[in-house]
Amino acid sequence: MKEVIRCAVLGLGRLGYWHAENLAYQVKGAELVTVIDPLAGRAEEVAKELGVSNWSQDPDVAFHDDTIDAVVIVTPTSTHADLITRAAKNGKHVFVEKPLTQELSDADKVINTLQQENVFCQVGFMRRFDPAYAEAKKSIAAGDIGKPLYFKAASRDGNVPHEEFIKHSGGIFLDVAIHDYDIARFLMGQDVSSVQSTGSILLESNQFMEKYNDVDQGLTYLTFDGGATGDVETMRIAPYAYDIRGEVVGTEGAIQIGSMRSTDVKLLTNKGSTHDLIQDFPSRFQNAYLLEMIHFISSVQQGKTPNCTAADGKAALEIASAATESFLSGKKVELKKVIEKTVI
Ligand SMILES: NC(=O)c1ccc[n+]([C@@H]2O[C@H](COP(=O)([O-])OP(=O)(O)OC[C@H]3O[C@@H](n4cnc5c(N)ncnc54)[C@H](O)[C@@H]3O)[C@@H](O)[C@H]2O)c1
Q: Based on the number of CB atoms within 10 Å of its own CB, is 248 exposed (0-12), middle (13-18) or buried (19 or more)?
């Protein structure tokens, strides 16, 4: 077993900073040695804040450093395929944020390279590590609700991203709903065999999304290969909270996941009772981001395949691509094949 895993973080934006901070201070067995971002001054700023000794604007600095064991890729989705490939070819284990790649056609190439170079890859589907989703998985696996029949998810975000982000995001099904496609497979223990999706632009201020074939509200109906069905509601315009919920109905009961509260405080007055609501993804999934990184580092230390693999990344990407195709064509789309469970 390798005691210390020397890491680099690539991409120090909204989420990259968070992963870097966790690796610098909270993940046992990890040593954050380099931070990288092409944005002038960003890597130096983060390095100084987190006490990291090396920084650069160039990812090659991490790839060509033989003392680095693993890279954490938190860059725009369109860069993932290239960066994973370069990392793997330089013998680095990879943690990559979702989605695995922007284009489905790149997923197999990336998986082949990871296999050829014999490096591990974990995809950042952090909901699998969220204590509530993880507990639900355990309960379903223990048979508490019988055979899972129906999956339901709502992911509602109120922070509408700016136009430049939407332009490159790949659309609501790829950028947002993909978390629910992954967690659907995880909780149901079945792969998705067909999807039918639809969507709308509900806010006047989001009309610009039409240029990019995107919407601020989407709905995906899923059919699973074991006969179950489900629906995924996805929204960028929730005016009240960052509201993430899931449910599985089985033959013997149902399991509901997610509360919207950030603190367990309730205010009671003669006007009624109130409590706070979670407003953004870092607050809702703070624990999950840390736990997924602990899992990645411990998998690399032990030389074990992590739980959320590149094959899982491809499976979710296949569902997202089919959902996008269905939204654009108005037709149900069959997934070409059941995803192989490879050893990546
Ligand atoms: N799991 C989640 O809940 C979650 C949440 C948000 C974002 N994401 C994913 O994380 C990734 C990054 O998203 P974000 O919101 O942090 O983006 P962001 O735009 O805030 O940050 C991206 C950073 O990457 C840098 N960058 C660009 N090209 C680079 C390169 N070649 N090498 C190194 N750095 C580079 C940019 O300068 C920027 O600082 C995306 O793939 C996104 O889908 C996941």
A: buried
Rounded distance between C-alpha atoms, residue 297 and residue 231, angstroms: 34
pTM summary value = 0.95
79 lines ligand 1 (CB under 6 A): yes
Instruction: Give the DSSP H/E element, type plus range, for residue 221.
Output: strand 217-224
Residue nearest to atom 18 of ligand 1 (CA): 13
pLDDT in tens, 70-93: 999 999 999 999 999 999 999 999
DSSP letters spanning 60-122? HHHHT-TT--EEEE-S-GGGHHHHHHHHHHTT-EEEEPSSS-SSHHHHHHHHHHHHHHT--EE
Expressed in angstroms and rounded, the spacing between residue 84 Cα and the centre of ligand 1 is 14
Give, to the nearest 10 degrees, the angle between helix 281-302 and helix 16-25: 50
Q: What is the pLDDT of residue 161?
A: 87
- Rg for the chain (alpha carbons), in Å? 20
- Do 286 and 86 touch, CB atoms closer than 8 A? no
Helix (H) or strand (E) holding 264: none
Ligand 1 pocket residue status of 41, Cβ below 6 Å: no
Domains and CATH numbers, the chain: 5-125+288-309 (3.40.50.720), 128-280+313-334 (3.30.360.10)
267 and 275 Cβ atoms separated by less than 8 Å? yes
DSSP character at residue 26 = T
